[in-house]
Structure formats: structure tokens, C-alpha cells
Amino acid sequence: MTGWNWKQSLILLGVAMAVITVMIPNMDAGKKPIVFELKTVDGDTYRLEDDLGKNVIILDFWATWCKPCLRELPHINKIYEDYKDKNLKVFAISIDTPASKSQIKPTINRYNFSFPILLDPDNTVIRNYSPARNVPYLVVIGADGEIVREFSGYKPGDEKLVESIVKEELTKLSAE
Amino acid sequence: MMDNLGRSLVLVFTGLITFSGLAGAGFYDEMTLTGTFESTYWDHDPDDWEQGMDIYEGPYSSFENQLMIHAGWRNWFGELRLRNMKYDDGIHYDYRSREPEADFEVFKFKLGYRGELFEVTGGDFYQSLGRGIVLYVQEDKDLNLDRTIRGGNVRFSSDRFDFQAFGGEIEWYKFLDNAADLTYKQREIKDELIGGMASVRVSDGIRLGLNYVTGTLYEFIRNESVGEDFQTGSVNVEATSLADGLIDVYAEYAKLYWDSDAPYGTETEDGEAIYGSLTSYLGDFTVQLEYKDYDYWTYRYGRPPTADREDEVNELDDTKGGRIKLDYFIGATDTLVYVSYSQFNNQGHPDYLGRVQRNENTHYYLGIEQNWSHLYAHVTYGFKEYEEIDETHRRATADLVFTFMDRHSLNLYGEYKYTEISGFKKDEYKTYLTYSLSPYVAVTGHYNRHEFDSDSGTPSSMDDWWAGEVTVTPIDTLTINVLYGGLPTGLLCSGGQCRIVPEFEGVQASLTYRF
Fold it and tell me: What residues of B are in contact with residue A103 (Cβ under 8 Å)?
């Protein structure tokens, strides 16, 4: 390992830790989601800030070519169906590039997904949440408009955890 | 190097002190801050590269750290990506790096203001227009390219109108002055682009759009940089949920004009591209028709739809034809069946092997996807034939996922590809088995094999890759991944996640922390 510039690497890590240590506690410990504006698959405009603090929100980043995504999304669709009348909003955000955009709606129809689909063709939004752009990537935003939990990848059983968080946050929302 | 490091650290710490000072003023109540720290170590020791597939023979190690910070305050937002990378061989050349031994640097940055109907951004941004025919500037993990436009971008968006204008430079390639020169002096090639788009909703579900890009693309010819001016534009129409949601339609027509005064005889034929898609939803049936006609569309920033199987890249530049795809979902048994048939030709232009003749190809594939309570199965088969040039491709895949004890799962994937081109045959096998033993740990074993044979008496040969991988997620914001062994380039899915990886042999260790 001779020749590595460990000094600079450690300094960079130190800067990262300093940013985390100094700034996060000063922001009331909660993690606010980065707001965005995206088009729906039908061409309407959606703004995240319109729903923050008013609904519990699930953002699920996915792509038509991602098999784990297509195993996760049916579970999320069921959670949406069960709780959509109780202030739960779900947005499946497709990171398909323009070249594969024509495959998005057939995929939705194929699996009978009922939640709204947002388009992130330049992958600008997913980079703000998951810079490596790995999918699926699921974010639960709670009753107070802050991120409660993030799931990188899908592992069987994640959907039960997501549902329990959603129920807990919906209870908080109805109490406010 | 240290000057840059020093300046950057001073900048960062000045920022931290400023932020700390603002804490008491309630500044943070309106501030968002997220980010990621990624650290990746590669010990790359190739011992049996595929012939001609890699020009960077020889082992190397790399250590790369990247810190990305995204901050927002009221309507302002900013992004900063700092990178530190190091190669131990001193001669390794990497498309992503500013220099062969780049140290600490500001890799990407942007600052912007978002209003209710508009957004202004300065710095690095990704951009595509329409279906990517006239512009597609994105990160390409297959090629290890992370290209952005560095410049300005103004966007206006309402429910009825969308306008956008942008301009800037793209640093797309690092060129060696002389391949034999081990100092690896580099020349930078920067393309210049200016463009924009406008679209209007003419009625419910119907939008019309115009896209335009002009600029100068640089090439290295005879040891000097040569610019070639171009203009490209397209008109597109998109209609969604017509006939009570039964039909979606998209069509785009594009032209590409090159400057005819280009030096050194680099004049290029003007191009034309047409893409159309019609999808119909008839209960449990989905029917999709696609048509493409790309003529002399050899354009660096164009990536039109392939109208092909999603994970099989085919000719993009000069091709004409169509495909039909039918999906049928059987709700009673939770079964999905799909079949696709396509017919394309190469417009009579030379292909990548220089063969000049009209070349028809036929491609069909089918798949069945089945869900039981604890078992998911997906099986596909595809066949493609180029009749005139004796070229054949076959591909079969099987994906099985068995879940048990709530949070345990086994995922077995197998893939076989057969390619035959003018008597040269290649068999590719790809398998992996992943065991997720909890939400926190996943273990994967990979095996890939490529076999080569020919009718001409050339000795047969074989490459194979073994790899083991462990992914640990102790908390939801921290992921640690260690891979040992070799992998060919391609889409890699393991641990419930997919990513595109370059060819590799050795050890990889990565840590990702999201905050």
C-alpha cells in the first residue's frame, strides 16, 4: 500500500464527519427531504412540497429494467391501496432514461400499479437521495414532513417494516 | 496539488464556521442538507483479459473517496461533489479522472434558485431532450463516463407550457498525446453546446414539443483538435390516455445538419431520425407497436430508443424497422406472459465491421413470469438472426427467488447467450446465487464463463470469472460491500439491487454512508 495518499483521504473523511457532526444536530435532528418538481407519466406537474406535513409519503425510485424493483413495487402498491384513503401518498419515481420511457406505462399496466408514476429522466432527483443511483431506493416521509426511514435495495420482508412505519406515522398525523 | 487541497479545505471549513454561526439565528430551520460519502478500494489484477477488450493491460490499484453534499435554503439549492482518487501504477488512465493521478478536486458543483414556475441553475447538470434523439448527456457507468454540461440552465414550467434554455461545455474525453509516452500527458476535449426546448399542452393528455441543439464537437485528428459545427432539432407529439385511457402515442421527427466546411475531410452526411410508439391497453392485454428509422444518426450526444429488448443494446445509428410486443396478465394465477417480434434493416449502410450490404435482422423473444406465495420465477428466451451475413444470437434466462422465514431469501439467476458471427462462436454463461439472511446481510456467489470457438480451425478458448460478495447494512444509512474475484462488464444484480459494473478482477471494497 506504499504510495497511497492516506493523509488526503483521511482529511476528506474528516471533513465529511465534521459536516455531519456540526450541522445535523443543529437542524433539529430531523432530516428534511429535498423538495423537487417532476412530471407525472401523463404530463402533469407534481411538487413534493405541496404534500409535506399534510400526508405520509412514500417515494420509491425504480426502473423498468430493475427486477428487484418489480418484486418490491407490488407490495408497495398493496400498502397504497390499503392506506390511500388515510392520507398516504405513494409516488413511484422512474429513473428510466428517455430511450426506455415508452416502456414505463406498459410496465405499470402489466402489474396493475395504481399509484402515480413520476419521471426523473435526467436522474437529477435520485442523485439527491441516492447519488450512486442504485435502485430500488425507497424513502418514507413522516407526518412532520421529515424522512423517517430509507431503504436501499429490496429484501423480502421490507414491506412489513414499511407498512408498520406508515401506520405509526398516519396515527401521528391524525393526532395532530 | 496541496495548494488545491488547501484552498478546498479552507473553503469547506469557512463554510462550516459560517453555518455554525448562523445556527443561533434559526438559519437551519429552513435548511435541508443531505449527502453521501463513498469510499471504494479496488485492487485490480487482470490475468486473462478478453483479447482486444481492454487497452489498459496490467494490474493497478485505486482508492477513491467521494463526498457529495446537497444543501437547500429557502428557494436556493446547491450541490458539491469532492473527489479524491489515487492509482498506484501512475500510468493508469481513466475516463473519469481529470488527470491520471488526480488528487483532491471539486469534481462537480452547481448552484440554483427554484421559483414557483421557474428554475435557474449554474454549474454541472445532466440534460436530455425528447426521447434522447437530439440530446442525451448522462453518466454512463458501462463506459465509466460521467459527463455533464458545465454552464447555465434556465427552465420555466407550468401545467400548460414548458420552456428551457441551456448552454455550456462538456468535457467528454481525455486523449493521450502518445500512447507510448508513459508520462501520459493528456489533452482535454471540450465540446460546446447551446440548446433549448419548448412544449405546450394543446388539450388534455396531448403535448407538442420542439427541441433544438447547436454546437461544436471536437475530435483529435493529426495531433490537433478539430471542431465540427452541427445543428439538430426535433418536433415531437405525445398523447397519453386517449380513448378513455386505452391508448398512448408518441412520435418524434429529428434532423441533424453538419457544417460542410469541416477540415480534413471529416464532412459527415446529414442525418434524419423518426421514432414512433403506440401502446394500447385492452384489459389484461397490453399491445405495443414501435417504429424507428435512423439514417446517418452517428451523433455523439444522441441516444435514440433502441426499440429492442431493454437489456440488449443493438444498432442505434442506422436502422429502420418496427416491433410488436404483447403482454398478457393472467390474474387468477398471477402469471405474466409476453412475446415480442421485430424486423429491422441497416439502411444499406456499413455496419461496425465495415460490411456494406442491406442487412435484415429478425428478433423475437418471449417470457413467463410467475408469482407464488414464496416463490418468484421468470424465464425468457430470445432469438435474433441477421440473414444476409450469417449472424445469430440466442439468449435464455431464468430467475428464481425463494423467500422463507420472513426475512430470508435465496435468489438463483442463470443466463446463457450464444453468438455466432461468420463462423466465430461465443457461448456466455452467467450465474449468481444470493442468500439474504436478514435485512442486514446478503452473501452472493458469481460465476461467469465465456467460450470461443470457430469453424475456421482457430483454437477454441475460454475465460471464466468467479467472485464472492458480501453486503452488510448495519443501519439503513450505511452500506458496506466487499467483492473478491472477477466479473465481466454488464448489469450486476445482487443483494436486491442492480448496478452496471465494468470488467474487473481483484478485490473491491466500498463503504457508502448517507446523511
Answer: 310
